[in-house]
Design brief:
The complex is a heterodimer of chains A (101) and B (263).
Chain A: E1 2-12, E2 17-26, E3 42-53, E4 56-69, E5 74-79, E6 91-95
Antiparallel strand pairs in A: 1-2, 1-6, 2-5, 3-4, 3-6, 4-5
Chain B: H1 7-15, H2 24-28, E1 34-36, E2 39-40, H3 44-50, H4 63-66, E3 70-74, E4 83-87, E5 123-127, E6 136-142, E7 148-151, H5 154-157, E8 162-164, E9 169-175, H6 204-209, H7 219-238, H8 242-247
Antiparallel strand pairs in B: 1-2, 3-4, 5-6, 5-9, 6-7, 7-8
The chains are: A mainly beta (101), B alpha+beta (263).
Chain lengths: 101, 263
């Protein structure tokens, strides 16, 4: 019940990056018109860790899609805590809620 | 005008009745006017004097409310005199040394929640989150809190009568033909409120007992579920494949992107 996405990196210019916003590539989303559906949708970066927390070794950073990035379907997302740079290239779950359909 | 006042000033003005219920007088002929930021033409006492409260007669008599101020009580003891006159209600034992600020009255009301035009009684909804995520479910009616009342029906997919927020729901174009007026009026927000656990049960016994036993659903709730579902089931069986559709879960398969799907 989510669309798959990939973390491409942080919002950046050529030589400076802003880690508070990450760029996400959502599968199957190729144009800026397609991204309209995903605006506002919640995004989860799920990862594993060695230490157990609250009974689980799986952890999650939540965020939201805030706007489109460029014209080819990439999207900007802001997370509750900034994504670690280790997440570049990792999968991210773009949920289908809050739904506007 | 009120936005320019700081909170402290607001408290003090409130105490003077400055913000008492607005009469039509206030709207049409305001007693005060703003000259510059934070500067009014008339001072607080001048505005209050303008209200001519000293000349007005009170509409309802407040006297009736206070009833008997004093009462006579019998006193024991030979030389105390037989009775004594004392106040009916005791004066408070404690008076605060400084003025305590009183929080402002709550005048804002939450508006009624609008539901999407695609959600209409009888619509099949897809639940996106929670225990029943992916289940297709029938929408019955919107409750006063703004939440959507929804039912599986329980017999078909195991989803009971439930409240759901419309943000966590996708409305499909499939509709079940049900008569919403027949949905029991008992089903409202109060019906779903959690019952307060009996605090007395926290005895040593209970602590050592381990997990709390799950109580079976109240009988009237089970009956209500069945009767509501009957309404829906009657309509569902008339449409071919609708029962299987409601029983099936929604999922995205490879290559399917939600933005391209037509629900």
């Amino acid at each position: 019940l989510y669309a798959k996405g990939r973390v491409l990196g942080f919002k950046r210019a050529k030589r400076n990056q802003r880690p508070d916003i990450s760029l996400i590539q959502i599968e199957g989303v190729k144009t800026i018109a397609d991204t309209e559906f995903y605006l506002g949708k919640r995004v989860a970066f799920v990862y594993r860790a060695k230490r157990e927390v609250n009974g689980s070794k799986i952890r999650c950073i939540w965020g939201r899609v805030i706007r489109a990035h460029g014209g080819s379907g990439t999207v900007k997302a802001r997370f509750r805590n900034n994504l670690p740079a280790k997440s570049f290239g990792a999968s991210v779950r773009v949920m289908m809620y809050p739904s506007r359909v | 005008m009120y936005q320019t006042l700081t909170r402290n000033v607001h408290f003090r003005l409130e105490a003077t009745g400055f913000f008492a219920a607005r009469s039509s007088q206030d709207e049409k002929n305001p007693r005060n006017s703003l000259l510059a930021a934070g500067v009014y033409k008339y001072s607080r006492s001048q505005v209050i004097a303008k209200r001519n409260l000293h000349k007005r007669k009170p509409a309802g008599t407040v006297a009736a409310a206070s009833a008997v101020a004093n009462k006579t009580v019998e006193v024991k003891g030979a030389k105390n005199g037989k009775t004594r006159v004392i106040a009916t209600s005791k004066a408070p034992r404690f008076y605060a040394a400084e003025d305590v600020p009183v929080p402002n009255k709550h005048r804002k009301h939450a508006g009624t929640v609008k539901i999407r035009s695609s959600i209409v009684p009888g619509t099949v909804l897809i639940l996106l989150a929670g225990r029943y995520r992916g289940k297709r479910v029938v929408f019955l009616k919107q409750l006063k809190s703004g939440l959507l009342l929804v039912s599986g029906p329980f017999k078909i997919n195991g989803v009971p009568l439930k409240r759901v927020n419309q943000a966590y729901v996708i409305a499909t174009s499939t509709k079940v033909d049900i008569d919403v007026t027949k949905v029991d009026a008992q089903l409202d927000d109060a019906y779903f409120s959690r019952s307060k656990a009996v605090k007395k049960a926290a005895t040593e016994e209970a602590l050592f007992e381990g997990q709390k036993k799950k109580e079976p659903l109240a009988e009237n709730k089970v009956a209500l579920q069945k009767s509501t579902d009957k309404l829906i089931l009657d309509a569902v069986t008339k449409v071919e494949h609708l029962r299987q559709y409601l029983a099936a879960k929604f999922s995205l398969s490879k290559g399917q992107a939600p933005h391209a799907l037509k629900f």
